[in-house]
């Protein structure tokens, strides 16, 4: 048998994952099947993939992931804020199954797909009224949404420059990477990146007037300002309350397009459909990705109609808005609008209170912040944060670092109170061991 025909995955015992309690570890980590899978992977995959711990998922349901050895983990990552409705939500799976029996693909950039239209209608209905009539372009990834938004802002304003923020993450293509400023290693060795990008400190809008416009670039040369409502990769940073209103004022004053990169924060994760709603500000363009289709690749650029000035053929994508991904997104929106968004707020408050209680007992925690189920725990230093992340994994809890010393808690929006309490109990235990 050739190696490609061999399964590295041991057959799993049939246990009902949906009702499983987790963690439930049956081997030392990584187990034998995981070790074999990792060794096989290392021979053929790009070394740029920066795996954080030896997790090899085989199947999952809700907030429980089972690895190739049958170990069960409690998932507070949601595949980096993607599995918004939980793993393999039956409604999402049913929508995918039905659509995949009907139409798998027909390029929506060149022909008409009613399901593409339906999803765009649903997204348009979610934006703040100040945006007026919005129109939507669908892509496959957050990066593509960022690229499309920058192209659109340049095209609509006939200006070239873009302002982004230190700590921001917007993707890794040469255009989006020029905006990304969370870690220098993402940029190192890849230059020159797309020119015309100015970075300002996140949360400090006065820097735009006092430094960027005063010394570097006049405001009427700026096409767009792009920011995350809560910085994700940069450390789950919540800006001060006057930041977004100031950005809105600056953009209105100078005819600059305000782009909210809601790829990580959007689609209900913070307890509202869009995290910018917490800021009381309507952007000109909203970008969605990650959780929009519960795990299938899809992203959206939702822009004010008067900005959508580009003509036929000026932007497109072979796969963007694929009908199966659209079906998953429609089912996702049904679930998010049908209760998960409210649940994210309630469970987020519960978790944040629990984390603050942990902070009062464990001095290594410097800050607990965030909104809904986009919560960050900042530690005294990087090594402690990393030790907590790694030790949590060894105990069957999946969490992920961001920024310098922050751990993000971004579970599927379906997490139960009982599961959230397990997250808190494991973190308590881990903190007792590593600090
Ligand atoms: N924008 C934000 C705020 C993100 O968090 C990410 C990914 O982490 C991206 C853009 C890029 O998205 P993708 O990895 O889907 O291209």
Commentary on this structure:
- With 435 residues, the protein is α/β, with parallel strands linked by helices.
- The strands form three sheets. Strands 4-10-9-8-7-5-6 form a seven-stranded mixed sheet, with helices on both faces. A four-stranded mixed sheet has the order 1-2-3-13. The protein has a four-stranded antiparallel sheet with strand order 11-12-15-14, covered by helices on one side.
- The protein has two domains: 1-74, Alpha-Beta Complex (Aspartate Aminotransferase, domain 1), CATH 3.90.1150.10; 93-335, Type I PLP-dependent aspartate aminotransferase-like (Major domain) (Aspartate Aminotransferase, domain 2).
- The model is unreliable at 1-13 (pLDDT under 50).
- It has twelve helices and 15 strands.
- Helix 3 (90-102) packs antiparallel against helix 10, helix 4 (114-124) runs parallel beside helix 10 (323-361) and helix 11 packs across helix 12 (417-434).
What is the strand and helix layout of this fold?
Layout: H1 32-44, E1 57-61, E2 64-67, E3 72-75, H2 78-81, H3 90-102, H4 114-124, E4 134-139, H5 142-157, E5 161-165, H6 174-179, H7 184-187, E6 197-200, H8 206-216, E7 222-227, H9 243-254, E8 257-261, E9 285-288, E10 299-304, H10 323-361, E11 365-371, E12 374-379, H11 382-394, E13 397-398, E14 400-402, E15 406-409, H12 417-434
Parallel strand pairs: 3-13, 5-6, 5-7, 7-8, 8-9
Antiparallel strand pairs: 1-2, 2-3, 4-10, 9-10, 11-12, 12-15, 14-15
The protein binds pyridoxal-5'-phosphate.
């Amino acid at each position: 048998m050739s190696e490609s025909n061999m399964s590295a995955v041991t057959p799993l015992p049939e246990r009902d994952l949906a009702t499983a309690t987790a963690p439930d570890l049956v081997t030392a980590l990584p187990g034998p099947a995981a070790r074999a899978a990792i060794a096989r992977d290392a021979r053929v995959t790009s070394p740029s993939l920066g795996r954080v711990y030896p997790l090899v998922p085989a199947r999952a349901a809700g907030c429980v992931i089972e690895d190739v050895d049958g170990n069960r983990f409690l998932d507070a990552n949601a595949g980096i804020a993607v599995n918004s409705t939980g793993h393999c939500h039956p409604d999402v799976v049913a929508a995918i199954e039905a659509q995949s029996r009907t139409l798998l693909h027909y390029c929506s950039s060149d022909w008409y797909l009613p399901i593409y239209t339906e999803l765009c209608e649903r997204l348009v209905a979610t934006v703040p009224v100040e945006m007026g009539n919005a129109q939507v372009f669908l892509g496959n990834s957050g990066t593509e949404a960022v690229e499309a938004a920058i192209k659109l802002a340049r095209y609509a304003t006939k200006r070239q420059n873009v302002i982004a923020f230190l700590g921001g993450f917007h993707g890794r293509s040469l255009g989006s990477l020029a905006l990304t400023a969370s870690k220098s290693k993402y940029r190192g060795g890849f230059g020159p990146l797309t020119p015309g990008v100015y970075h300002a400190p996140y949360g400090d809008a006065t820097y735009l007037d006092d430094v960027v416009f005063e010394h570097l670039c006049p405001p009427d040369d700026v096409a767009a300002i792009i920011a995350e409502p809560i910085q994700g990769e940069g450390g789950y940073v919540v800006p001060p309350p006057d930041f977004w209103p100031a950005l809105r004022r600056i953009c209105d004053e100078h005819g600059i397009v305000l782009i909210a990169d809601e790829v990580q924060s959007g689609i209900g994760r913070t307890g509202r459909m869009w995290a910018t709603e917490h800021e009381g500000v309507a952007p000109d363009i909203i970008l969605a990705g990650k959780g929009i289709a519960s795990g299938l690749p899809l992203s959206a650029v939702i822009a004010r109609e008067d900005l959508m000035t580009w003509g036929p053929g000026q932007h497109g994508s072979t796969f963007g808005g694929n009908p199966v991904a659209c079906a998953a997104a429609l089912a996702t929106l049904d679930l998010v609008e049908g209760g998960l968004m409210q649940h994210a707020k309630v469970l987020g408050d519960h978790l944040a209170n629990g984390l603050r209680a942990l902070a009062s007992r464990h001095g290594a925690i410097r800050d607990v912040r965030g909104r809904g189920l986009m919560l960050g725990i900042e530690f005294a230093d990087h090594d402690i944060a990393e030790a907590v992340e790694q030790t949590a994994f060894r105990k069957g809890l999946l969490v992920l670092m961001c920024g310098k010393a922050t751990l993000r808690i971004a579970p599927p929006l379906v997490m139960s109170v009982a599961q959230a309490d397990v997250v808190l109990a494991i973190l308590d235990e881990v903190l007792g061991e590593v600090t």
